Amino acid sequence: MYTPTTIKKVIAYVTNKDELMVFTHTDFPEAGIQVPAGTVEESEEPSEAVLRETYEESGVQGVRMIELLGIYQYNMAPERDEIQERYVYHLELTEPTSSTWRHWEMYSSTSKHPIAFDFYWLKLDGSDLDLADSQGYFLPKLTQKTKKSGYSKNHLSQ
Q1: What's the pLDDT band for 132 if we cut at 50, 70, 90?
Q2: What is the 3-state secondary structure (H, E, C) of 91-128?
Q3: What share of the chain in percent tops pLDDT 90?
Q4: For residues 102 and 119, is the Cβ–Cβ distance under 8 A?
Q5: Which of 2, 52, 83, 111 has its CA 20 to 30 A from that of 105?
Q6: Three-class SS of residue 131?
Q7: DSSP assignment string, 13-63
Q8: CB count, 10 Å around CB of 30?
Q9: Which range, 52-61, 112-121, 144-153, has the best average confidence (pLDDT)?
């Protein structure tokens, strides 16, 4: 019996107050609204990968780890013959960041050329915010946790 390849991925929910950092592909808006995400490298822990991917995709270094929200499996069929084991982390902004900005990812696994991303902030409303490829799977949990624990008390203003 054939079993698709399983690949470890990370997803970063970076928050500032009650907002989530999101982006669209400048040249491929049809890819939808996304959050920083990527592949865990062979010698890397998921908690290290999520910080690396956040920086590579957004240029933002000023974040701190809050927690692992959870892990889930996502089947990429029919686009790709793989199962993604997704580690979803909540990160908190620790330095002022613009309300919108463009950043070029230089080390993409899908392109030899830099890829432009347009970043902005979306208000967390308890839904999955229509993020592409089920990236919003744990957003309702994030919204609930941030309201209960008061994470937003220490966030930076923009």
Answers
A1: very high
A2: EEECCCCCCEEEEEECCCCCCCCCEEEEEEEEECCCCC
A3: 76
A4: yes
A5: 83
A6: coil
A7: EEEETTEEEEEEESS-GGG--B-SEEEPPTT--HHHHHHHHHHHHH----E
A8: 7
A9: 52-61
Pairing of the two strands 82-93 and 5-16: parallel
Evaluate the CA torsion angle 49, 131, 108, 55 in order and state its sign.
negative
Assess contact for 89 and 13: CB atoms under 8 A: yes
User: What's the confidence (pLDDT) of residue 151?
Assistant: 53
- In one letter, which amino acid is 52? R
Question: How many Cα atoms within 13 Å fall on the side-chain side of residue 157?
Answer: 0
Find, among 154, 26, 5, the residue nearest to 94 by Cα: 154
CA-angle at 122, arms to 69 and 151, nearest 5°: 45
Strand 100-105 to strand 115-123: parallel, antiparallel, or no bridges (unpaired)? Answer: antiparallel
For 80-126, write each residue's pLDDT tens digit: 899 999 999 999 999 999 999 999 988 766 667 889 999 999 999 98
Predicted TM-score (pTM) of this structure: 0.89
CA distance 32 to 133: 9
> What was the pLDDT predicted at 150?
61
Token digits of residue 92: 């908190």
Type of residue at 107: Y
